[in-house]
Amino acid sequence: MGRFAGKLVVITGAGRGLGAALAISLAELEARLVLCGRNEQALADIASIIVERTGNAPTCIAVDLADVGSVTEASRAILASNPTVDVLVNNGAMWLEGRKEPYTADEVAGVVNAAITGTFLFTQALLPGLERSESPDIVTIGSISGLLNASLHTVSVPFYAAKHGQSAIAEGLKQMLVGSPVRSITIHPPYLDDILPTDPEWEEVAHRAKGGRGTNRDVVEAVIFALTRPRHVTLSMVLDTDNGGQYAAP
Q1: InterPro entries, per this entry (predicted)?
Q2: Do 138 and 123 meet the contact criterion of CB atoms below 8 Å apart?
Q3: pLDDT, tens digit (0-9, with 9 covering 90-100), for 135-146
Q4: 83 in any annotated domain
């Protein structure tokens, strides 16, 4: 895992859940981190955990992916301090569950703008930094909901549509970046149990029997696996936890 040592990794949605699990895990593999998210206190809390476990302090950048101005400001701040970006993990997204009551305009705009507009603009802005890297990667954390003919299950139509759009961005980037050293990798997880490397369950789930429910650790390991493949290999991975096909996930 020495190939992560010293690499600059930018993670959106890093203040909680899967983003936080990725941040802690990659920090333990000696990556240098920029943690991005809407909640500055949540980012600071994860940064404190990383300092305690590794001794290295990540950079925290507040960004609201649903706000174009915030995306522009954050991307400029990242490149001003880190001209070279090795890995961008597009994990940030807004969850909106299915319900009978109508959704507000703000709810719909927030979900769609964060997953599509904000994700694309953030990636586009950081591309010059990625192109300076010797091994640049863009990792998009999609969803089973974003796959063709996926069941709506319990997600809202705006979230379902947003994840389809995010999946299209990842595929479009893959095609756009043909001939360049930048890879576009996609991971599509199902519903997940939300655990962190600081939780006792993190070690316990490594020994689950077939059919066990997915966790953040599964996605972290999938991301690390994808990033450590030879440079000529680009992956799009669907995580199947053998739960009867009832998939839909943030």
Answers
A1: NAD(P)-bd_dom_sf, SDR_fam
A2: yes
A3: 999 999 998 888
A4: yes
Q: Which two tokens stand for residue 132?
A: 């300076």
User: CB of 3 within 8 A of CB of 27?
Assistant: no
Neighbours of 149 (CB within 10 A): 4
pLDDT at 240: 72
Total tally of structural domains belonging to the chain: 1
Residues 6+ apart with CB under 8 A from 23: 11, 14, 33, 35, 46, 50, 58
Angle formed at CA 64 by CA 25 and CA 44, multiple of 5 degrees? 45
* Per-residue confidence (pLDDT) for residue 244, from 0 to 100: 39
Query: Please, what is the Cα angle at 81 between 132 and 127, to 5 degrees?
Result: 35
Q: Which CATH number do you get for residue 48?
A: 3.40.50.720
Q: How far apart are CA 88 and CA 181, in angstroms?
A: 14
Coarse DSSP helix, strand, coil percentages of the chain, rounded to the nearest 5 percent: 45, 15, 40
Beta strands in 99-239, from DSSP E residues, in sequence order: 137-141, 183-188, 236-238
Indicate whether 221 belongs to any domain: no
Phi and psi torsions of 32, nearest 5°: -90, 135
Beta-bridged to residue 61, according to DSSP, are 36
